[in-house]
Predict the structure.
Amino acid sequence: MDKKWYAVYTKPHWEKKVAESLSSQQFITYCPLTKTVHQWSDRKKTIYVPLFTSYVFVLALEGQLGLVKKTKGVINLVYWQGKPAAIRDQEIELIRNFLNEYSHVRLGKTPFAVNDTVKISSGSFIDQEGTIVAVKNQYAVVALPALGYTLYAEMEKSRLVKVAAPASQSVKPH
């Protein structure tokens, strides 16, 4: 059996403590940190904060996940389709490389992602559902199935409304 990376959901502001605790239990952990400047009334200081709030990554065998969940500060694992979500090594490496190349990194949530189902809220295709096939600055490329063909339309994100995914497909901590 191979070790895999798993996302651990932690108590707020416990990311570093959980990573240290898991490391002391001989787990390999990764808590991506980004540099930020904090301003106090009397000074400025550059500090490192977790890139992903309330998340730490741990390399473990599936059979060791019970021990991971019992670690102080761990709320749970992140699950996908009822099972602990395994994260590919390449994704962890991509995060590492990105943080090595860029020092001040921030996360931003985007309302749309590739493969999301959306409904068009205005224009000639109003109420038509489609699938996001690409996301650009202010635009999303939406595939609109019609007459057995797929029409690809690039439209402003403001004209799209995300259609809720079935509960079994959402990624969430259990």
Observations:
- The longest strand covers residues 139-146.
- The chain has a mean pLDDT of 83.
